[in-house]
Amino acid sequence: MGEIHAIRPEEPIVGHELAGGVLRLTLQNPPANALSMAMMQLLLDHLVAARDDRAIRVVIIDSAQKLFSAGHDLKELTAHRNDADRGRDFFEKTMRLCAELMQAIVHHPKPVIAAVDGLATAAGCQLVASCDLAICTDKSTFCTPGVNIGLFCSTPMVALSRNVSRKQAMEMLLTGEVIDASTAREFGLVNRVVPQEYLNPIVRKYAQTIAAKSPLTVKIGKEAFYRQAEMSLTDAYDYAAQVMVENMLARDAEEGINAFIEKRQPEWKGE
């Protein structure tokens, strides 16, 4: 299975384990896995470190608590209302770090999979929506409830509206109501819904399947997917055609095509 890095005591709120090319980052900030500044920074640090680590092919983000994540740490935010600026500076730092974290997932060269078991709310739901794939248990629930406490989920809206239709995103944002796992799949927020006991095996299967592909090809494809999605149809085809040409010139594409023709397993070099 490869080298395993155990959770380090100096970073207990984010577990870190690498096995078989798959890096598992586990949220473990009880009781609600709130995305405090410390947790977001640790997640970001791990993601940045994984970018150029050739031993890592796929990243999984999961949780060790009954909740996947309750979103921003409201107690941490509220404590700064006593600051001279009523918390403005801290609020800005929090939202900037959150935006940096979510974009680091989208722009990461390795695929990132959310494994959800429990409630994912507000920025926790944003984290799920930011991942490339999301698999959840049939007991999982999702919501963007900021409107209920006078704080519209504006930053979660960015990720949410890029995963589900506008009408469905607005339904979640305006009502703040919880949706169940099957509705989340219907909306397009998650890929699959599975019984709790199958979550880890199925997520592991997804990760191992992707990890067996050419890392260069996966990197090229992920970047192209998100870039073309923001373009007009004509620009997207022009861009994607150029990506295909450059990809065809890569050694892994040459190896993969030859292996297919010769009916053998390819040997990826990542170049």
Automatic annotation (TrEMBL):
<comment type="similarity">
    <text>Belongs to the enoyl-CoA hydratase/isomerase family.</text>
</comment>
<dbReference type="Pfam" id="PF00378">
    <property type="entry name" value="ECH_1"/>
</dbReference>
<protein>
    <recommendedName>
        <fullName>Enoyl-CoA hydratase domain-containing protein 3, mitochondrial</fullName>
    </recommendedName>
</protein>
<dbReference type="GO" id="GO:0006631">
    <property type="term" value="P:fatty acid metabolic process"/>
</dbReference>
<keyword id="KW-0276">Fatty acid metabolism</keyword>
<dbReference type="GO" id="GO:0016836">
    <property type="term" value="F:hydro-lyase activity"/>
</dbReference>
<dbReference type="InterPro" id="IPR001753">
    <property type="entry name" value="Enoyl-CoA_hydra/iso"/>
</dbReference>
<dbReference type="InterPro" id="IPR029045">
    <property type="entry name" value="ClpP/crotonase-like_dom_sf"/>
</dbReference>
<dbReference type="InterPro" id="IPR014748">
    <property type="entry name" value="Enoyl-CoA_hydra_C"/>
</dbReference>
<dbReference type="InterPro" id="IPR052377">
    <property type="entry name" value="Mitochondrial_ECH-domain"/>
</dbReference>
<keyword id="KW-0443">Lipid metabolism</keyword>
<keyword id="KW-0809">Transit peptide</keyword>
<comment type="function">
    <text>May play a role in fatty acid biosynthesis and insulin sensitivity.</text>
</comment>
